[in-house]
Design a protein that fits this description.
The chain is mostly helical. The chain folds into 2 domains: about 100 residues; about 130 residues. Helices cover about 90% and strands about 0% of the residues. The protein contains 3 helices and no strands. α2 packs antiparallel against α3. The longest helix has about 160 residues.
Length: about 300
């Protein structure tokens, strides 16, 4: 007698209890099939001859035992296969998760690198622009300083030239006054010598007059001598007056030259102080702008770090 046993198909997602239930169902179907075949061969019901029943029972038990053993072996093999497949699936899932995590980490690192590269490029552009601006400002300040220095040197040279010119004019006036004074003194000396000579001549004439000469002639000679002395005195006064006027003019010119030189020196000092103040203000402004740019850059860097 041949009994066909249907292969037990494992339901998808079935647990161990469901698999055993499926196996029992298959065993029940196999038992019914064996019973039908026996009845067909013997033509008897299950209530027939005891020997046949016993023989059928033995065959049935043997077939059931074989089926049970086979099913157990299949179940063990299936369970082992399922366990291996589950383990392999878990390993593959674990590997896939790890690979996805690595890919996500690599993508995140790549994005961070791109962000950092863009940030560095922006910072580099900002630094380059700031350096170019600072260079232009430094060159501008240097040109302004050189121009101011040239103007200052030109003014100083002009002031020195004007002072030298004024000094030369003062020396010329001084020499001219000294020359005029010497001429006046020489003229006065000549007049005095002439007066003394004439006085001596008059004295000699007066002493030479005899007692019997006319008194009128003596009076005329005396009067003439007095007139000469008066003229000499007036000439002396005129020369002194002229010398005094020239001395006053010289003093006034000297005072004007000194005042002009002092005014020019004061103006040059004020100009220099103003230029130095302007340069200091520009320097302070540049340092303030540089500090503000550095603070802005630090804030942007901090913000980028926080965003990261």
């Amino acid at each position: 007698m041949v009994v066909s046993i249907e292969a037990v198909k494992k339901p998808e997602g079935a647990d161990k209890a469901q698999e055993l239930a499926a196996m029992e169902e298959a065993l029940k179907k196999a038992t019914e099939e064996a019973h039908k075949q026996r009845v067909a061969l013997t033509g008897e019901e299950s209530t027939g001859v005891s020997s046949i029943v016993q023989s059928g029972s033995l065959l049935q038990n043997k077939a059931l035992q074989e089926l049970k053993n086979k099913q157990e072996l299949q179940q063990k093999a299936l369970l082992k296969q399922l366990a291996d497949e589950e383990k392999q699936r878990e390993n593959e899932l674990k590997q896939n998760i790890e690979l996805e995590a690595k890919i996500a980490q690599a993508e995140k690192e790549r994005q961070n690198e791109e962000v950092l590269a863009k940030q560095r490029a922006g910072e580099l552009q900002i630094l380059q622009a700031e350096e170019a601006q600072q260079k232009l400002e430094a060159e501008k300040r240097e040109q302004e300083f050189l121009a101011a220095q040239a103007v200052q040197e030109t003014k100083a040279a002009a002031a020195k030239k004007a002072a030298a010119k004024a000094n030369l004019a003062r020396m010329k006036r001084k020499h001219e006054l000294q020359r005029r004074k010497a001429e006046a003194q020489l003229q006065m000396l000549k007049v005095k010598q002439q007066m003394e000579a004439e006085q001596a001549i008059d004295n000699e004439k007066i002493s030479a007059i005899k007692n019997d000469e006319d008194e009128v002639t003596a009076n005329l000679v005396q009067k003439k001598s007095e007139e000469k002395e008066k003229a000499a005195t007036e000439a002396k006064k005129e020369a002194e007056k002229k010398a005094k006027a020239e001395a006053e003019t010289k003093a006034k010119d000297d005072a004007d030259a000194k005042a002009k030189a002092a005014a020019e020196k004061k103006a040059a000092a004020e100009k220099k102080a103003a230029e130095e103040k302007k340069a200091a203000e520009e320097k302070a402004k540049a340092e303030k702008e540089k500090k503000a740019a550095a603070e802005k850059k630090a804030a942007e860097t901090k913000k980028a770090a926080e965003d990261k």
